[in-house]
Amino acid sequence: MSKKVSLRKRPNILFILADDMGYGDFSLFNKGLSHTPALDQLTREGICLTQHYAGSPVCAPSRASLITGRYPHRTGAIDTLEGRGLDRLSLKEVTLADVLKSEGYATGIIGKWHLGALDPRYHPNARGFDEFVGFRGGWQDYYRWRLDYNGVFRKADGRYLTDVFTEEAIKFLRRHKDEPFFLHLTYNAPHFPLQVPEEEVKPFLEKGKFTRGVCLIYGMIQRMDRGIGHILEELRTLKLEKNTILLFTSDNGPQFGGEGQMCTTRFNYDFRGCKGNVYEGGIRVPMILRWPDGFDGGRYVDEMIHFVDWFPTLLAACGLKVPKNIKLDGQNMLPILQGEKKKYQKKRFWQWNRYTPILTSNAAMRDGDWKLVRPPIPETLLVSPADADMDRALKYEPEKFNDICRDPEPERKIPSPPAAQLFNLAEDPFEEKDLAPEYPDKVERMLRELERWFEEVERERRTIKE
Predict the structure, then answer these.
(1) pLDDT above 50: residue 2
(2) Which end of the chain is more exposed for a tag (fewer CB within 10 A), N or C?
(3) For residues 231 and 87, what is the distance between their CA atoms, to the nearest angstrom?
(4) Which of these three, 346, 378, 407, is where a domain ends?
(5) Does any domain span residue 466?
């Protein structure tokens, strides 16, 4: 058998990542509040994971864990502030694209990168992706966009950004239909700024049930869903549907907040919390996957799967091994997805705050059904006014910057942390009853494990000298 024929039999991977979207944003799960027919159909045809977790409650760290199979602290990508380089994926990290490219896959990323800007060493083309169309920071204007096409910049031409990414994805599929490919399609919808053609907003405004902010988000999701529908049709046309592993998820939970008509707080399956915190609403995210040649569809899978698990799982699905020099936190969950019974790691960890990580704020551990939470300390989640101004300027005046800000972190007064909380998610998935007072020994044990994990990943992060 020739190498070309052998490669062709390997499955393609189309990994679609939305930005700040929750379970409650699917019309299938919210009784028609939104309108997501393509995603709803995918859910019916494929596998829906009910306990799927992002790597972090915010963008960049979560994406780092997804693409490396490692906890974000290890990778150096600890925050969203690209102006300070806190989103940079360490150059020592090996990405999923690196491995697949070395095995003959065509690799591309279209959309949001957010794992290093302002330095060509962190460009997607240097991190395993043959092709890149998108932006490297945390967000982008949907009309006044400036996109990087493999290092060449193009300015907005009147098209809506979500549509641009859909069109570029379809072009990628056509270019690579005769070879195995890995396409990471990273829509920035429905992330801020809340912008979408008014015809997408009107149906939701007419319902009279939502703020304008929620209507804008539902409109943005509807537009993205329509694009996904076009991509699904293209896969059928190109006869790629059966041997393509298609995955859809979000980098973290939905963004809530805002005032008056621009408030974005909405239904999210009654999970506690939202983007930015480690309660379920911030880290438990939808995952729909379909692979007709490899999975029986029409199923729900209840086992816990974390972003770090996709690196080894997708390699296994492609018949490939994890390189020996990589130390992963993830595990191969392919047998679980194929309906087999398998023992797997049931302990997982999260932690995030602004600037240097602080264990006592916004951290969590899952051990089977039990979840320990160190609640967020609000003072640790604030961005300085200067950094907020720089973040906006990077999007609209990028030519003013040629390096990250290397000033000391802003000074902060951090108060004593609140008491740890304990929840049994099997009995209380919405984290309504804190059981810490009833199980002090369990709390103490889990706190020690969380501390050991944090010390280990932080020790590795501190070895990064870039």
Answers:
(1) no
(2) N
(3) 29
(4) 346
(5) no
Which residues, listed in sequence order, are joined to residue 133 by a DSSP beta bridge? 110, 149
Q: Are 273 and 281 in contact (CB under 8 A)?
A: yes
Q: How many domains does the chain have?
A: 2
- Establish if 287 belongs to a structural domain: yes
Please identify which of the residues 35, 48, 59, 191 carries the catalytic annotation. 59
What digits encode the pLDDT tens for the residues 396-418? 999 899 999 999 999 999 999 99
Establish whether 114 is a catalytic residue.
Answer: yes
Task: Name residues whose C-beta falls within 8 Å of residue 102's C-beta, 6 or more positions apart in sequence.
Answer: none
Residue 51 lies in a domain: yes
Task: Yes or no: say if 254 and 279 are a contact pair by the CB < 8 Å rule.
Answer: no
**205 and 188, same structural domain?**
yes
Q: Tokens 């969590």 appear where?
A: 364
Predicted confidence (pLDDT) per residue in 249-293, tens digit: 999 999 999 999 999 999 999 999 999 999 999 999 999 999 999
pLDDT digits (tens, 9 = 90+) for 181-233: 999 999 999 999 999 999 999 999 999 999 999 999 999 999 999 999 999 99
Tokens linked to 37: 């027919």
- Tell me the C-alpha distance between 43 and 205, whole Å: 27
Residues 341 and 364 in one domain: no
State the DSSP string of 58-97: SHHHHHHHHHHSS-HHHHT--SS-GGGTTTPPPTTPPPHH
Helix (H, G, I), strand (E, B) or coil at 376: coil
> Which letter does DSSP use for residue 181 in this model?
E
Say if pTM beats, i.e. exceeds, 0.90: yes
Task: In whole angstroms, give the CA distance from residue 382 to residue 380.
Answer: 6
The residue from 73, 114, 184, 191 that is catalytic is 114
Whether cis (ω within 30° of 0) applies to the bond prior to 193 is yes
Query: CA-CA distance, 424 to 116, in Å (whole number)?
Result: 37
Q: What share of the chain in percent tops pLDDT 90?
A: 95
CA dist 186 and 168 (Å) reads: 12
274 is a catalytic site residue: no
Spatial distance between the Cα atoms of 411 and 352, rounded to a whole number of angstroms: 18
